[in-house]
Design a protein that fits this description.
Number of strands: 3
Number of helices: 5
Helix content: 55-70%
Radius of gyration: 25 Å
Largest sheet: 3 strands, mixed
Bound molecules: zinc ion
Oligomer: single chain
Low-confidence stretches: 115-119, 123-127
Structural class: mainly alpha
Mean pLDDT: 84
Strand content: 5-15%
Order of helices and strands: HEHEEHHH
Length: 128
């Protein structure tokens, strides 16, 4: 048990800009910014910096983020329902089908907006 406690406590944010990554990733601990615990750090994450929170504090933080995203998702869902109420679900399904077909036919991966609309225009003209 003492081995983890013997690891050095590095200052946050870690690593400093331009620091040697191999050195920055060596086993270490940080002092949580939210509580007095000195937690074992897993090293810099995909952002390139260490998470400045211990496990329990991170868990709480992620929970509140989850709540935020859930309320955002609920809001989006609410807007969609409202639109669906206004124009009818058949119209929505039709648009969804159209978009699926366009995506399947299109080799453009990010095929939303102008590109797709242009393709749809020329496509419908050709079929007339
Ligand atoms: Zn903490
Ligand atoms: Zn760290």
């Amino acid at each position: 048990m003492t081995s983890a406690e013997e690891l050095e406590i590095l200052p946050l944010p870690w690593p400093a800009p331009g620091a040697d990554l191999r050195l920055a990733r060596r086993p270490h601990r940080h002092r949580c910014v939210n509580c007095p615990s000195h937690y074992l750090c897993a090293g810099p994450d995909e952002t390139g910096e260490c998470v400045p929170l211990c496990g329990p504090c991170l868990w709480v933080e992620l929970g509140s983020q989850l709540k935020m995203y859930q309320s955002m998702a609920n809001e989006i869902d609410r807007r969609r329902r409202k639109i669906e109420e206004q124009i009818g679900s058949a119209e929505c399904r039709r648009a969804q089908m159209l978009r699926r077909n366009l995506l399947r036919d299109s080799s453009v991966v990010a095929g939303f907006g102008r590109v797709v609309l242009k393709r749809e225009e020329s496509g419908s003209k050709a079929s007339d």
